[in-house]
Description:
By secondary structure, the protein is of the alpha/beta class. It has two domains: 5-146 and 203-254, Vaccinia Virus protein VP39 (Rossmann fold, 3-Layer(aba) Sandwich); 148-201, no CATH class. The chain is built from six helices and twelve strands. The strands form two sheets. An eight-stranded mixed sheet has the order 3-2-1-4-5-12-10-11, with helices on both faces. A hairpin with a 2-residue loop joins strand 6 and strand 7. The chain is globular and about 50 Å long.
Amino acid sequence: MRFDKYELYEHSVQDPEPVMANLARTFRRLRGREARTLREDFCGTGANLEAWALRHADNRATGIDLDPEPLAWGTRRRFGPADPATARVKLVEGNVLHQKGGRFDAIVALNFSWMVFKQRRELMAYFARVRAALGKSGVFWLDLYGGPETETKSEEATPEGPYTYYWDQKHWDAFTGETRCAIHFKVGGKKRRNVFTYDWRLWTLAETLDVLRDSGFEILEVQDEDSSTDTTVWRPVKRLVNQRWFIANVFAARR
Length: 255
């Protein structure tokens, strides 16, 4: 197996079709209509954008990312002239804090990417940009992770057939909430360390909900993963207690 960090990342971390299906299903339930226009912040290689565009002929998607490298990889891989999603997907190289205009049914910030904002004022500035870009009855979806195991130094290896994926929690500071993590891959007997690195603040669910409300959002729903099934199923919850590790989806709207 050849080493391609973006291909390995997508295979290990992302699952675009069910993720976009959850967005469509949740939006329909919360709003009583179909979502057609999507903006993904920190979109990376655009896998979610392609999946969204391919769900329906009327679906449109815009992706924003500061890093030109994954955008270029995604353009070569899935948005060529002959690809069916190309005409309905727009990739923007830029800072999510500088985006203006647009009216989207849904805006998403997934894979914890928004945690790059470590200060409350920075996070509120980002949420203000999102709020301004949401259309009437639009929905903002972000995900986060938490639980006591996220506050410990650890490295978890996951065999993925011809390679091994590693999630490495390198550091967590209780004083600031800052965390540093990395993804490693072992391919062909060679372990490549720090292929992707992350310098975040590990915002708690309670903190995130407070900042959203203070930024003019209404919390529509929080989802937790139902681990009792073999496939990923998300269920609305009112409480999250006694979990060593969890991932939560937060859906919010302009108040």
